[in-house]
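Lab notes, practical 5.
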Amino acid sequence: MRLSSEPAPEKKMLKLTVRVRGRDSHEGKPIADLLLALYKDRGLSGATVLQGVRGFGVHGVSRVDVLGLSINLPLVIETVEEPSKIEAILSDVKTIVGENGLITLEDVKVP
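Output from the prediction step:
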């Protein structure tokens, strides 16, 4: 394998981040599960769900209690994708998340 001295061109993508709490649901189903299913059904290349250990926001504090049991911990669901694919699902993401969380978009460059 020969390495080129020129760097690969960067690809402009969008990062979609959704922040909710673990017990947040839409129509009785966990938001994280609904989002992952939506992303897969719409052909996105992948997504990651990260669980936080502590957080706070409009809906209160999320943390682990003294017995070590998780109490509605924060979740972050992220995907990086072509802008057109993110734009195509954004309305559905907003419907699923509703008033339960925060949705952000960020321009990113992928080498």
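Observations recorded by the TA: The chain has a mean pLDDT of 89. The longest strand covers residues 11-21.
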